[in-house]
Amino acid sequence: MNKTRLEAFSDGVLAIIITIMVLEIKVPHGNELSNLKPLIPIFLSYLLSFIYLGIYWNNHHHMMHTLKNINGGILWANLHLLFWLSLIPFATAWNGENHFAPTTMMIYGVVLFMNGIAYFILQNLIIKSQGDNSLLKKAIGKDYKGKSSPILYLIAIIFANSIPIIAGIIYIFVALMWLVPDKRIERIINHQ
């Protein structure tokens, strides 16, 4: 299998995930601006999740540019990542509908944590498949952002039950940390 098929499948799944997520935002009854007020937590939850999905889509796209060949392990690791990404609409809807309640903030964090772990697994399988001269390994270097994200998610999960606002701030911080475009992979590929 070549990487274009894997990319196309992954892009399609992510498009469906975003579509499902936006369909969870129900149109309010009434035609006044005040009717939108109950949707504020739902929209904020959607916005953060949309940003996260955009970050994963962007980083996945760059990571795929380093691939020369695909093996079964990479296929399964990619499906593993897509599985956890597919749970984002559920966690988003539950969190927004319940106005960022402690349990829903914790579950949201668990889903984000598992997405980070799944991405890390995929990334490491790609590096392993590329051998000592891995383009991806050269590009990510020590990968401080990749290693610190799961730790921050765990901290947020711990705070979610007692101080959910701290968990929310951590989720936003991690998203902002990744929102800054990462040019490492582009530089390595263009240099090659």
From TrEMBL:
Q: Which UniProt keywords apply?
A: Ion channel, Ion transport, Membrane, Potassium, Potassium channel, Potassium transport, Transmembrane, Transmembrane helix, Transport
* Gene Ontology cellular component list: membrane
According to the UniProt entry, where is the signal peptide? none
Membrane topology of the entry: Multi-pass membrane protein
- Keyword Transmembrane helix listed? The answer is yes
Q: Which superkingdom, per the lineage?
A: Bacteria
Return one GO MF term.
potassium channel activity
What does the sequence similarity comment in the record state about its family? Belongs to the TMEM175 family.
Question: What is the protein named?
Answer: TMEM175 family protein
